[in-house]
Amino acid sequence: MSAQRSRLARVGRTLADLIWPPRSLLSSARVDRLGTLEPELWQALAFLHGPGCQRCGIPLPEATSPDIICPACLVAPPVYERARAALVYDDLSRPMVLDLKHGGRKDGLPAFANWMAEAAPFALEADQIVPVPLHWSRLWQRGYNQSAWLAHAFATRVGRRFNPDLVSRKRATPSQNGLSATGRKRNVQGAFVAQAAIKDQSIILVDDVMTTGATLQACTRALLRAGAAHVSCVTLARVVRSAKLDGVTSSPEDTLEPIDA
């Protein structure tokens, strides 16, 4: 029976592809398989595979050691152990991220999970993988939490426990859009609470985009208060400000920051 069901599933997928041809994650072009994109666009994506800060993961092209820490993290160490992202959030990746966040498009999740797993091999050692939560009112309004979708796909990919209910957002926070880094930090301060004791556990926190890291830091504090031994953060994409080992940084590209992170 299982072989028969498998054949029926393949036939069903073939018919579905004929009726609704799979489209690229970044264009209207037809592709061979759902949740993929054209080779030339895939090659153009800015994957974060190069040298970077050991803590926040910001690219540091001039770094000569994997243990380098960027000036920003030396001055104000993040409360999380490390943060990694698969992609730079830029003009090319932006539509793909927003299709997931605001369009509810799920066909890219397997690919996103693969990219995130490559960026964060340490996830294989985590006890639990947890999404950044939405407040219940925002969840009711939107109908889904795209970070929970990402976290579930990522947990499945790395074979770790997915726990969507470990952290909750206890108050509705205004949108982070347009806020300064200080404003973002103040906006989410104390907004999260862990729902269970997690003494000595290693937790991976998942979100769609890291902008200033304010949301991830606020969630991390809630997890540490609940007893977590280590909290690391993994996102699909991140806003990248040019960081240098001499401490000079460029200004953020504000036009690329419509993300509450």
Net shape: globular
Strands, total number = 7
CATH-derived topology of the largest domain: Rossmann fold
The CATH class of the largest domain, by name, is Alpha Beta
Distance between the termini: 47 Å
How many helical stretches? 9
Order of helices and strands: HHHEHHEHHEEHEEHE
Radius of gyration: 19 Å
How much of the sequence lies in strands comes to 5-15%
Q: Please mark out the parts with pLDDT under 50 across 5 or more consecutive residues, or reply none.
A: 11-19, 247-258
Order of strands in the sheet with the most strands? 1-7-6-2-3
Q: How many domains comprise the coordinates?
A: 2
Largest sheet: 5 strands, parallel
Helical percentage: 25-40%
Describe the structure.
- Belongs to the ComF/GntX family.
- InterPro entries: ComF/GntX_DNA_util-trans, PRTase-like, PRTase_dom.
- Residues 188-241 form the Phosphoribosyltransferase domain.
- The chain has 261 residues and is α/β, with parallel strands linked by helices.
- The chain folds into two domains: 1-36; 45-256, Rossmann fold, CATH 3.40.50.
- The chain has nine helices and seven strands; from the N terminus they run H-H-H-E-H-H-E-H-H-E-E-H-E-E-H-E.
- The chain has helices at residues 2-19, 39-44, 71-75, 94-101, 109-119, 136-142, 146-158, 181-188, 214-225, and strands spanning 82-88, 128-131, 161-162, 167-169, 192-194, 202-210, 230-238.
- The strands form two sheets. A five-stranded parallel beta sheet has the order 1-7-6-2-3, with helices on both faces. It has a two-stranded antiparallel ribbon with strand order 4-5.
- Helix 9 links the parallel strand 6 (202-210) and strand 7.
- Helix 5 crosses helix 7 (146-158) and helix 8 runs parallel beside helix 9 (214-225).
- Mean pLDDT is 83; it is low at 11-19 and 247-258.
